[in-house]
Each structure stands twice: as structure tokens, then as C-alpha cells.
Amino acid sequence: MKANSWMKAGPLLAAKTAVTAALLSLVLGVGTAYAYWSTIGIGSGSAATGDMQTVTVDAFVAGDTPATTLVPGGTAEVIVRASNPNSFAVQLYSFASNGATTADSSHPLCTTTGVTFNAPASPLTPTVSIPANSSVLITLSGAASMSTASQSSCQGAVFHLPVTMAVRK
User: What backbone torsions phi and psi does residue 30 show, to the nearest 5 degrees?
Assistant: First the structure.
């Protein structure tokens, strides 16, 4: 009979030992994981920022001729010159209208121009970069439109379209 009880106790003892070892391993593993993930690091760093100089935009410049002209009911391209005085390149992001369109001084009777600026989608596609300390010409296709409400005194006028240009480093 003793042999029979020893045979029953052996597997039970082995099972208890295995469960105890597993629990002990789990507790030690959790403690190690907690110690690993709860450590704190302290350090310092520094960075400097520079001032970005204003990137300017000038409308149509003498010698820069558009391929299309503006007529009532139509659209035309707008040419701008963007100048970057910074020591690093910048990327053009967007254009927006920044005021009322006016006709040149030789057309004083052109008070209802009917001309509007149609800003291209942002960000500009394709990407336009302006190299450091340089300027580029940018042609914005169909960016000017003229309604049929334009006065006939506006014929032959050069229009001033105030725009704002956004750039990013």
C-alpha cells in the first residue's frame, strides 16, 4: 500500500513543483520588466534658431512676358518673381489674394476692372524651391480672370494684383 501512495504523491509533488517554479518565474519576470520600463533618464540638449529674412514677391517684371493675355470672360497666367535673401533655400507653399486689383496709372477711367486673382491650390504642385540668395520667375497658369463686367476703358491696361506668398524652410 505504501508503494501505491508514493506513486500517487510523486506526480502530485511534481505538478506542485512545476506550478511553483512557473509562478516564481512569472513574478521574477514581472519584476524585471517593471525595473526595465520604469527607469528614468535625464539629459539636456540645445538648439539655436535663426531669423528668416522676408522672401519678397514682385508681380510681372519688364522683360517677363506672359504667353496669354487677359480678355473679358477669360483667364490668363500671372508671372511673379520671388526673391530669397536667406542663406538657405526655401520652398513656396501658397499664394493668396491680398487686396483689390487696380489698373495702371495710364488707365484712370478703368475703375471696375472685373479682374480677380485665382490662387492655386496649396501646397503648390509641382514643388517650387528658391535657392539661397537668388530669385526665380514663377508662372501661375490661369491665375487671373476677367469678368464680362469689365469696363471698356480697361482695354490695354496692365493690372496690379496684390498677392501674398507663403514659404517654408
Answer: -65, -40
Contact of 93 with 121, CB cutoff 8 Å: no
- What is the Cα gyration radius of the chain? 37
Q: Give the N- to C-terminal CA distance of the chain in Å, as an integer.
A: 89
- The model carries a pTM of 0.63
* Backbone torsions φ then ψ of 22, nearest 5 degrees: -65, -45
C-beta separation of 97 from 57 below 8 A: no
Q: What are the tens digits of pLDDT across the range 6-48?
A: 455 556 665 566 555 555 555 555 555 555 554 554 555 555 5
Cell numbers of 110, please?
478703368
Of 55, 54, 104, 58, the closest CA to residue 80 belongs to: 58
